[in-house]
Amino acid sequence: MRTRITDLLGIRRPIIQGGMHFVGLAELASAVSNAGGLGILTALTQRSPELLAKEIARCRNMTDRPFGVNLTFLPTFAAPPYAEYIHAIIEGGVKVVETAGRSPAAHLPALKAAGVKVIHKCTSVRHALSAEKIGCDAVSIDGFECGGHPGEDDVPNFVLLPSAAAALDIPFLASGGMADGCSLVAALALGADGIAMGTRFLATQEAPVHENVKLAILGATTLDTRLVMRSLRNTERVLTNPSVERLLEIERERGDALTIADIHEQVAGVYPKVMIDGDMDAGAWSCGMVAGLINDIPTVSALLDRIMAQASHLINDDLRRIATGGDDGETYRGIMS
Ligand SMILES: Cc1cc2nc3c(=O)[nH]c(=O)nc-3n(C[C@H](O)[C@H](O)[C@H](O)COP(=O)(O)O)c2cc1C
């Protein structure tokens, strides 16, 4: 399959693994790249630029295909040394960066001068247009269903993606709720040039996380995520657990007076406890609604093979049959089974 995204990134399949804190390590990123997509290391999971440089080198040893690095600009007063992380990315020969959170404008000149392609993750068309205007090469559009930070507009992908297609000139990825060949075909039909997935990649053999995390995703229904930190305008979609329900209770009690200090216990330092120790009730961790559609833990390569085979079958066979009037109404039951 060839799209503007496969051309831009030099990959075989229009499927990207979004940056994931404590998940986007060399094991997963290299597996996605080896399977023909684009794997992404998560810079801030590495506590220093030096450690990121080592992780980039480790990933390079595990794949000879392109891979990227996610750089998340956090709403924090004690900002990480972003310029030094960027130096490690450039020195490590990485040619794709996924930025997220705040605008990457201040860092674009350094990245562009080094020939790095920048994909900015956005949750609205207005932010996507700003990213296009400042010179980003592509955007990844995260709909309301996504795991992580869906923004504050609450527009789901069925409306967000065609709005983005109508407004943008640069290529874009559909992100949030993507899981299989049906998602890929739907995303392409809505104008996207490929898909980015987070939660689906968590439940794979190569995801370097505790087995409990994968089992929690398999056990989740589409109703098991919650939106937290809304009143702080830092909304995050997470998988529910007793700690998250307590967090929501505190939010209700504190109302508009809520500060991050009130929920420190439920949101700070949670990722290593969940992803490494498998303590599933440690606090709030990102998870998409799509968890409710995930029923297995395949290898990354089996997952990508299956997505591409399903997409090809849909486009060349099932949808063609429906479009030409040769269908007896059973096709969609077949597609979903
Ligand atoms: C466990 C987890 C951690 C994540 N961490 C980050 C992160 O550190 N930075 C970032 O930009 N996005 C992060 N995301 C968001 C993903 O990159 C991606 O945009 C999102 O998962 C897409 O929605 P989906 O989960 O429905 O596929 C995270 C998502 C998950 C599930």
Automatic annotation (TrEMBL):
It comes from the Bacteria. Keywords: Flavoprotein, FMN, Monooxygenase, Oxidoreductase. GO terms for molecular function: nitronate monooxygenase activity. Signal peptide: none annotated. Pfam families: NMO (PF03060). InterPro entries: Aldolase_TIM, NMO. This is Nitronate monooxygenase. It comes from Sphingomonas gei.
